[in-house]
């Protein structure tokens, strides 16, 4: 791990000015996303919830331009939910009936091979849409675990919101297609890298596109994402250390 940290410093992975919103999420009136309890927010907590919803607005309007009436309906369909590091938004075998936006924190989506090895499909930080969309669309049990990698806050939708939105206004189908397009391109890029690039090239590609996530990801999880062992990843990092020293 020391070599990993040293390499980060040397090639400047940590982006200057990386901003993390310092909201007091622990004081928000958070609800259990499974619906067991709900709390009425105080005035101060409502202010923080407004900030969360403004973050959600920015994420949505980056995907499309819903009319104000549609936005007002949409935003009322979400509530904040807190997840400690290691807790799951969705587990293999669950039915995905909700989706969420990451308001703060970081999640990983994981598959497990027949012999028990972990493959990290993606890392999902702030602003990402989170669910198992195969389960959500096809009404089948989830094949993926979605786990918090750090203490996190999601804005979680009500049950079956996607179907409700599609009946309300065409803009939601457009935004849904846009999300699907983004996921498709990401999937195609991942398949190309895993099939056509060697281990070092996959690592360098991750640095190019996601260097801001490196301080938040363990070397073990990164190796599981890149399709290599931690030993191989460490060997690549040490080799790059020697190249730039």
Q: Order of SSEs, N→C?
A: HHHEEEEEEHEEHHHHH
Q: In terms of quaternary structure, what is this?
A: single chain
Distance between the termini: 18 Å
Strand arrangement, major sheet: 1-8-3-6
**Share in helix:** 40-55%
* Class by SSE composition: alpha+beta
User: Approximately how much beta-strand content do the residues carry?
Assistant: 15-25%
Give the beta-strand count.
Answer: 8
| CATH T-level topology | Jelly Rolls
CATH architecture: Sandwich
Would you kindly provide a written description of the structure presented here, covering whatever features stand out?
The structure is a single chain. The chain has nine helices and eight strands. It is an alpha+beta fold and 245 residues long. The protein has a single domain, classed as Jelly Rolls (Sandwich). Strands 1-8-3-6 form a four-stranded antiparallel beta sheet, with helices on one face. It has a four-stranded antiparallel beta sheet with strand order 2-7-4-5. Strand 4 (107-112) and strand 5 (118-124) form a beta hairpin. The longest helix is centred in the C-terminal third of the chain and has 27 residues, at 170-196. The radius of gyration is 19 Å and the shape is elongated. The two termini are 18 Å apart. 26% of the residues are buried. Mean pLDDT is 82; it is low at 1-40.
